[in-house]
Every structure is written in structure tokens, then in C-alpha cells.
Amino acid sequence: MGQGRGSATMPLCLLFCLMMFLSPPGATLHRHGSRETKKRVKEAPVVSTVAPMSGDFAFDLYRALATAAPDQNIFFSPLSISASLAMLSLGARSDTKAQILEGLGLGPQAGSEQGLHNSFRQLLGELARPRKGLRLNLGHALFISPTVPVQDAFLSAVRTLYLADTFPAHFGDPAGAQKQINDYVAKQTEGKIVDLVKDLDSTEVMVMVNYIFFKAKWETSFDHKNTHKQDFHVTSETVVQVPMMKHKDLYYYFLDRSLSCRVVGVPYQGDATALFVLPSQGRMGRLENGLNEKTLRTWLKMSTKRQLELYLPKLSIEGSYQLEKVLPKLGINDIFTSHADLTGITNHSNIQVSEMVHEAVVEVDELGTKAAAATETVFTFRSAPVSSPKVILNRPFIMLIVENFTDILFLARSRLRILRLPLSLCPSPARALSPSVSKINKPQKN
């Protein structure tokens, strides 16, 4: 382990802001043309992105959050958190760097770290490409005290690899610095996050912001006239009424017998898909324990198009997490302690990340839809059954938002109180917001 660097520690104030405006994005599932219909289904281009992180990082983090809050909803962005950690690894050294990279699923082999950063650079460029009906943007910014000399190599790397903006911030005026950062975040998230940074003081030396913005429309719509109150079985004893959307259409579908669950892929415009995973009664624990990168690849590969009658609840889910308490469960410890070696960021040897907060909100409703013409597309099968099978998400389920087969943008578990009417009644697609904050401060005197 790395050695302590004196009795005084300069907490590094890294603020990771994540915001996402959602109708869930997703992965393009495996297409089976032989099962397609008289109407031609739009084929999404396959993007050759190399995943910037192991999918197992997302699921390991999910399990850590689920274990800490077994009866609560979960919603977070593995991509945002992994991007923040990857940026930190650029300035980390010795055991601190090794723990971050291992936590992200990278081994010690030569070139793996550079491959991680190059993959993020490629992904950032692809996320920014224009797509009809879908907007997705991942961005970063550093607010740095002029009194702290930051290594030129670190600044060059975050600007080149992560397209990060950098700004001087005078933390001697905490109120002014707080306004500066919050104004930036509000602009980047189109006013959806306006008060991310709180309680700055003059000990801060750096704030790092990470945000995600996502907005999409359903490829085929849920008619609000078909939305009615139905029972949602939180547990075998607890039942609540929720607004349940209904639509019959051609959806991606896979029955995973090994994990006793059904997977439904609901496509969006812009070649994106939301995955809804419904375990059999009493099998949520089995499903959660079986989540890994191999499982996700199986779902994406084996899903086929079939006509379903889908019942999907309108919902909003919130999540707020102190990652400095969660990431150590994944082996990322030193960065939050006096053992932190962040000398790749600054020559100061007594800095550490004192706080890393991640918050997220997602909403799903009928408004994340395509124009009316799309709803008129009719699909038939050569040997279609007379009646369409029903998939009713009326008990706790898991939602994944993935892209390019490998990049998990968001992960959610929907349980009881999580289900409620959307946070806003404005006419916009379902949306998700998620801010993350980390702090680095000056040394404290004994």
C-alpha cells in the first residue's frame, strides 16, 4: 500500500456532475430478418466502439448499491462514474492508480490503460454525432484554483482524451466559485440541474464536473388513451396503484430460462433501445446475482423480434449515492484516504478525494415517442399466433440503457415508492438527470 503523506491532507474537491435527459437510450439488438414483417424494420448501423470499461464494473457497482439499500429503487450511470474514475486515473500513481484501473476491470497488461482512454475519446466523438430523434452528450469540466499548480501533462491529457473544459476558479470566494460552477452545469444540462454544487468553502482546490445529456423519442408511441391505473406488486403483501401504459407492437424479446426472467427491448429513434428485465415471481435476487457482461451479451445476441402486448408503468426513479462509501467495496480505497497518490495532478503530495456524490433521476412516459406515422406501421409473422403474448411489468424489474452493444449508460431497479407520476408535467420525453460531485480541499491543521 502507498504510504501516508504527512498528518495534513488536502482533500481534492472533485465534483462529478452527471445529468441525463431521458427516454432511455440503448443497444441495437441482434436482428433476425427472417422474422420480420411485410413492413420493413429499420436496421440500425453497427458501431465499432470498443467498450471503455468492463461491463462487470457496472453490475458489481449495481450489486454494491443494491446490497446497501435492498428495499429501495436504484438508478445511476455506470458510464459517467467510470469516465470520472478514468479521468482521475490520469493523475493517480502507484497503488491508487492500480486500484482504479482494476476496479474498472482492467488488468496490468501493457497498453490496457491507454486503450481505456482512447476508447473513451472514441466514444465521446460517437456520442456527439447527430442522430435523428436522439441526443446524447457526455462532457467534463475542471474548475481549478490558481493557487494550485496542476501538472501540464494532466491538463493536456484530460483536454485531449476527454475533451474536458478547464476554468480557473477562486475558491477564496466560495459563493462566487459555487455560482460559476452551477451556472456552467445549468447551461450544459439545459437548465435541468441548477444547484448541483453546495457548501463550497475556501479549502477547496479543484472541482471536476461530469455530465450526461440524453433525449430521445420512442420509435412507436404509447397512446396516452391506453394508460390506466393498475396494480403494481411491490411485494407479495404490498400492492400500489400506478399509471400503466399499454401498446401492442413488435419488440425485441428473449426468455432467459437460466435466470428465470424475460427481457423486452423497446426501440427508440436514433438506433437506441431500452431493455426491461422482468424476473419471475420471487427471483429478483437470482437475477441480480447473475448480472454480468456475459449475460448482457447473451440478451443482446439472442433477442428476436416478436409481437407483444406490453404493459409498462409510467415511473420516475431517483438515486443519490456517496460513492466514497461504495467504491471501496470494489477495491477502490486509497483515493479517499491519506494513502492517495494524486501527484500526477499536482506536485502537492497531501491531497485526496474527500467526497464523490452521484445523483440521478429518470422518468419514463408516453411522450418519449415517435410521430404518429410510425404507430401505423403494421408487422406480421409468417407463423404468428392469433393472440399476442402479454408482458406486464407489474412487479419489481430492472431497466438497462445501453449503446453499441457494450456501453451501459444507465442501470435501474424499479421497486415500490419509486413508481410515481413524472416529476414534471412539461411536454417532453421521459428524462433522467444525474449529478456527481467530488471534493479536493487544502490540508487541515491538527
Structure report:
- The protein has ten helices and 18 strands.
- Helix 2 runs antiparallel to helix 3 and helix 2 runs antiparallel to helix 5.
- Strands 1, 3, 4, 5, 11, 12, 13, 17 and 18 form a nine-stranded mixed β-sheet that branches.
- The longest helix is centred in the first third of the chain and has 16 residues.
- It is globular and about 65 Å long.
- The chain folds into two domains: 266 residues, Antithrombin, subunit I, domain 2 (Antithrombin, Chain I, domain 2, 2-Layer Sandwich), CATH 3.30.497.10; 122 residues, Roll (Alpha-1-antitrypsin, domain 1), CATH 2.30.39.
Tell me briefly what this model is.
The protein has 446 residues and is α+β, with helices and mostly antiparallel strands. The protein contains ten helices and 18 strands. The N terminus is likely disordered.
Secondary-structure map:
Elements: E1 10-13, H1 55-68, E2 74-76, H2 78-91, H3 94-103, H4 112-127, E3 134-144, H5 152-162, E4 165-168, H6 174-188, E5 204-216, E6 228-233, E7 239-256, E8 261-268, E9 272-279, H7 284-290, H8 293-302, E10 304-313, E11 315-322, H9 323-326, E12 351-353, E13 355-364, H10 372-375, E14 390-392, E15 397-403, E16 407-414, E17 432-433, E18 436-441
Parallel strand pairs: 1-12, 3-4, 10-14
Antiparallel strand pairs: 1-18, 2-16, 3-5, 5-18, 6-7, 7-8, 7-10, 8-9, 9-15, 11-13, 13-17, 13-18, 15-16
